[in-house]
Amino acid sequence: MGGFFGAALVFLNYYDGIKYFSNGQYLISGSQATAGIFATYPKGFITVYEGVFDQILGTMIFLIGIFMVTDEYNFRFKAPDICFFVSLMLFVIGISLGFNSGYAINPARDLGPRVFTSFIYGWEVFSESNYWFWIPTFMPFIGAILGGYFYNLAIGSFNYRKSIADTSISN
Fold first, then answer.
1. Which of the four CATH numbers 3.30.70.1130, 3.30.750.24, 1.20.1080.10, 3.10.25.10 does domain 47-160 have?
2. The pTM is what?
């Protein structure tokens, strides 16, 4: 719902600019397309396989980073520091992995705005680029699972064993 209403506010704020830029048409693709303001669409050279990998990789890296800064046995950050590092990670992922398709890495980031734009641009927002919408909607779930798995495999399981050892020593 947040993504939907956020997209509505952006649309209202830039309504005149969108109409001016696209000559009064709401276009999903082409040189005067404006739908990409709201939801992610792939560049022309991206295949489905690259898009799937892109979304899984970005989400996986993001989740590993979130676990790193929130694991009490890894770092002991205070809440403002956690917010800073999570925002920094999101920024770095965006500038390093965002070129291909806009780095949705979260279904709420793409699906809510896409539903909103379907009211303005039409249902083609779901069929554009060979039904691209399913990639930023479902692939982040796989990336999140893999990110959690790899974090636990590489770091989390050691921290868990350390916490058990610390508990047994103090008792």
1. 1.20.1080.10
2. 0.84
